[in-house]
């Protein structure tokens, strides 16, 4: 009887150990899964490619020159940076605050940097102004209290800055339809008629006397919008009471560059889908959703029909204010590209792209000091500047991490 009891006890122990191991395995799988949902910043171990290091001159706030060594880049061989020449970058005075998903407009030597996230739980409600002539941050302006804080659409006529729609508040709160105008001479704000519907990060530009707004994400922050509206404006005022419906854009979505040059309107890159608010969350906590980043380029000309142009060298999003116009070409700095094919993590872009308007072709003209998205770019006296955004985790990890206010410049010679 005692022997029978011992056998029964051993079997019970084995069953218990098996059950414990099974539960532990399931728990580990669950942790891995939810970590995947919660973060785009997990390191993936795989074969590495070596990209040579970058040496650049750095100028500090008191003018002394120094050499800044950017470490060699190691990146998973399954998803590498594009080959690109080195550029000599100088570090300039950082923005007063770090910002992600902010916006910017350049008017002559002044660079207006709007709003954005300070962190996922904090948003800015002011404008910082940088003077390219003196390379200093010279002024701060408060925004209207009911103006959106990120994912704005912005455009200018050289004096008035039009600020369209966007997300109000931190995390993944909802968009608003309001439209504001800043008179950069008087520093006064005014209102225009609201959009027909709220949008996140719509492509926005002034063209032929009309303010054009298209694409972006709809109210749930994820569904791409195809709508294209325009409003006649002059000297910061609306000439019409309501927005006019235009030809829908062929592909919707947020985070695209929208540029007018040579009397043509270009819409470049972007994505379909975005993070959404977690259902029932009282703080509208961001929850990851499927996204598709694309390389599409579209153009409107005098026929008012969308034309498809050669695609970007790689899919690229988060570039709405990352562009400048130089020598009949469009230059774009940084962004985000398709998810890593193995880890499914967000991958930042570290290249500088040039779109040649005479030949309608693309080239890769250089590397940034690091990979970074939602850069705010300007060009002055031969210098390409960029500031702010969210940079990579280091040379060997292209996933996003730190929100920055850094300002960099490089002398750009394009033919």
From TrEMBL:
Signal peptide region: none
InterPro entries found in the cross-reference section: Kelch-typ_b-propeller (IPR015915), Kelch_1 (IPR006652), Kelch_repeat-containing (IPR053256)
SUPFAM superfamilies: Kelch motif (SSF117281)
PANTHER family attached to this UniProt entry: OS08G0128000 PROTEIN, PTHR46773
Record-given protein name: Kelch repeat-containing protein
């Amino acid at each position: 009887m005692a022997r029978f009891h011992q056998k029964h006890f051993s079997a019970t122990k084995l069953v218990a150990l098996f059950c414990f191991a099974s539960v532990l395995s399931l728990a580990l799988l669950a942790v891995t899964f939810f970590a995947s949902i919660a973060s785009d910043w997990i390191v993936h171990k795989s074969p590495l490619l070596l990209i040579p290091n970058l040496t650049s001159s750095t100028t500090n706030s008191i003018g002394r020159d120094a050499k800044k060594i950017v470490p060699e880049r190691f990146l998973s061989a399954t998803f590498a940076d594009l080959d690109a020449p080195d550029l000599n970058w100088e570090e300039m005075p950082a923005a007063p605050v770090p910002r992600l998903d902010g916006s910017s407009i350049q008017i002559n030597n002044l660079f207006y940097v709007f709003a954005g996230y300070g962190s996922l739980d904090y948003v800015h409600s002011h404008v910082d102004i940088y003077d390219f002539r003196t390379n200093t941050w010279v002024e701060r302006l408060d925004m209207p209290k009911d103006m959106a804080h990120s994912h704005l659409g912005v455009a200018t006529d050289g004096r008035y800055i039009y600020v369209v729609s966007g997300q109000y508040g931190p995390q993944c709160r909802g968009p608003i339809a309001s439209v504001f105008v800043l008179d950069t001479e008087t520093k006064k704000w005014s209102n225009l008629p609201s959009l027909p519907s709220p949008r996140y990060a719509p492509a926005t530009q002034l063209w032929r006397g009309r303010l054009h707004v298209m694409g972006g994400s709809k109210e749930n922050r994820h569904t791409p919008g195809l709508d294209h509206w325009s409003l006649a404006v002059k000297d910061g005022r609306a000439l019409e009471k309501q927005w006019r419906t235009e030809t829908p854009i062929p592909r919707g979505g947020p985070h695209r560059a929208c540029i007018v040059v040579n009397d043509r309107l270009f819409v470049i890159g972007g994505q379909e889908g975005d993070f959404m608010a977690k259902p029932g969350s009282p703080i509208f906590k961001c929850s990851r959703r499927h996204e598709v980043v694309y390389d599409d380029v579209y153009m409107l000309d005098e026929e008012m029909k969308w034309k498809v142009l050669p695609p970007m060298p790689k899919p690229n999003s988060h570039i709405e204010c990352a562009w400048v116009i130089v020598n009949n070409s469009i230059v774009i700095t940084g962004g985000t590209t398709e998810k890593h094919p193995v880890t499914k993590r967000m991958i930042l872009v570290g290249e500088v792209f040039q779109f040649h308007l005479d030949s309608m072709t693309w080239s890769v003209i250089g590397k940034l000091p690091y990979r970074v998205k939602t850069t705010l770019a300007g060009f002055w006296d031969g210098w390409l500047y960029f500031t702010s955004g969210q940079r990579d985790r280091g040379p060997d990890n292209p996933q996003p991490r730190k929100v920055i206010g850094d300002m960099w410049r490089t002398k750009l010679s394009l033919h």
